[in-house]
Amino acid sequence: MLLSRIPSEVSLDWVYLPPLMIAVLLGLLAAYAVTRLLNVTGLSRYFWNPDLALIAFWVLMTSLIGLFFIPT
User: What pLDDT is attached to residue 2?
Assistant: First the structure.
């Protein structure tokens, strides 16, 4: 029924990965792209600590990817 739609593993040829790992990696790439965009536009100067902002964006992007792209 509903539980049969939840992927338990994602197969990349011969490597099986959990869906959350894919979401974390995609979240890291998205957070890096956002912080690079903020650096180019100069908006990163408004952050107290840019490293903490990257981690916060990473958590935010991972949560959004997990919420919208991993079926529940």
Answer: 54
* DSSP output for 11-66: EETTEEE-HHHHHHHHHHHHHHHHHHHHHHHTGGGG-S-HHHHHHHHHHHHHHHHH
Q: What is the pLDDT of residues 30-64, one digit of tens each?
A: 999 999 999 999 999 999 999 999 999 999 999 99
CA atoms within 13 A on the CB side of 38: 16
Cα distance between residue 33 and residue 22, in whole Å: 17
- The single-letter code of the amino acid at 24 is V
**Cα gap 61→28, rounded to integer Å:** 7
